Amino acid sequence: MTEDVIIIGGGLHGSSTAYQLAARGRRPLVIERNHVARHASGASAGGVRRLRRHRAELPLAMESLALWRRLPELLGDDCGFSPCGHLLLAETEADLAWTVERAATTRSLGYDFEEPIDRAEVKRLVPSVSNAVVGGIIARDDGFGNPLVTTAAFRRRAESLGARYLERTEVLGIDRDGDGWTVATTAGRFSAPSLVNCAGGWGERIAAMLGETMPVRMKAATMTVTARVPRFLGPVIGHVRKKLSLKQMQNGTVVIGGGYEGRVDMEAGESDVLYAGLPGNMKPVIDAFPHLARVPIVRNWTGLEGNTPDAIPYIGPSPNDPTLVHSFGYSGHGFQLGPICGVIVADLVMQGATALPIGAFQPDRFATAGTLQWGAKEGTAVEEQKAV
Ligand SMILES: Cc1cc2nc3c(=O)[nH]c(=O)nc-3n(C[C@H](O)[C@H](O)[C@H](O)COP(=O)(O)OP(=O)(O)OC[C@H]3O[C@@H](n4cnc5c(N)ncnc54)[C@H](O)[C@@H]3O)c2cc1C
């Protein structure tokens, strides 16, 4: 064996895993087809959000937030983390009822970070919001980080502790032999007793090389940045019902997400903005903040992300071989989970188990015929997901 552990994919999850393994004395090799953070981890909106998370992700999101706060100590970099809060706007009585139900359900699970607020409090926090807003729900300690800086910080710290990165190197095939895994790449063959699949939207293809069925659909979420405007936003803003996500950066620009889909080219590993749909995508933003109507857009981008049928990731050991661990399919909300999922995967590689609850994320949950139903858990109060 030449390597301790091979990690396929140099995004946030591969890099967080590399850091955790290196911090525990292993020497992982990260193999990345492009450059580090080329895909979802570089294109991300950077939301560090627990608000409206799937119930299965809540324990992980709580632990991850604790790690976000410690990143300066762990990585020597604050990763741009700003705990400015996340606020979902409500515009109808039904929206308000949802905020109350959601907070009650989350509280019944043991979490009290989601707080329904009335119109006066929304106006106090965000005075320029439309008068159509009647209230909302807020997680005051959520926030956002800088995606590129965060992934680079994990990588830098991992390398300083002994991890190695091979960029512009594609994994082409994988063999299991008596001693472990041999990975064939465009830069030769590498072997290790443990293998980690952090290949994001291509994780399904890596799993298929190993005969495992783990479906994902690639989506290209669209981001928009405006020209600088005077400060008007504190918290990151979303909406109870509508596709809306915006935050204001230190320099005054407004970064807008919302999960609008661009064009996916799976083979080329590229995506593009669908400009024809852009005015429609901006409508909820302008409805909520009419003063943004005349502010110029300065750039757009898209990012490729793998979405699972139930919109929660695959995290866990292969049912066929515990020396293979999967961690991909974060379905548009894996940035917040990056710090804790590195801990979990390192636990699984080194101890074969983790103290955190990962049963809902088991890799083979769609392997049996008849179990695959796309979108099965979306749309209910607690399970509802919001991409960005
Ligand atoms: C536009 C956008 C906005 C988002 N906003 C948020 C947000 O606000 N909050 C939040 O929590 N999450 C958000 N997300 C989701 C979050 O960014 C992702 O869940 C997370 O970055 C996924 O990280 P990853 O390491 O699993 O995947 P990636 O960053 O995609 O990394 C996987 C890597 O594997 C490599 N790879 C694939 N196949 C091979 C191969 N055969 N050989 C070698 N390497 C290979 C790829 O090149 C890629 O670099 C957003 C995503 C997008 C796209």
Can you walk me through this structure?
The protein has helices spanning 12-23, 40-43, 58-75, 93-108, 119-125, 147-160, 203-209, 278-288, 338-351, and strands spanning 5-8, 28-31, 47-48, 86-90, 115-118, 135-139, 143-144, 164-166, 171-177, 180-185, 188-192, 194-197, 217-226, 236-239, 245-248, 254-256, 263-265, 270-272, 297-307, 314-317, 324-328. With 388 residues, the protein is α+β, with helices and mostly antiparallel strands. The chain has nine helices and 21 strands. Residues 377-388 have low confidence and may be disordered. Strands 5-6-4-14-15-16-13-19 form an eight-stranded mixed sheet. Strands 8-2-1-12-21-20 form a six-stranded mixed sheet, sandwiched between helices. The chain folds into two domains: 5-77 and 146-216 and 309-361, 3-Layer(bba) Sandwich (FAD/NAD(P)-binding domain), CATH 3.50.50; 86-140 and 218-307, D-Amino Acid Oxidase, subunit A, domain 2 (D-Amino Acid Oxidase, Chain A, domain 2, 2-Layer Sandwich), CATH 3.30.9.10. GO terms for molecular function: oxidoreductase activity. It comes from Neoroseomonas marina.
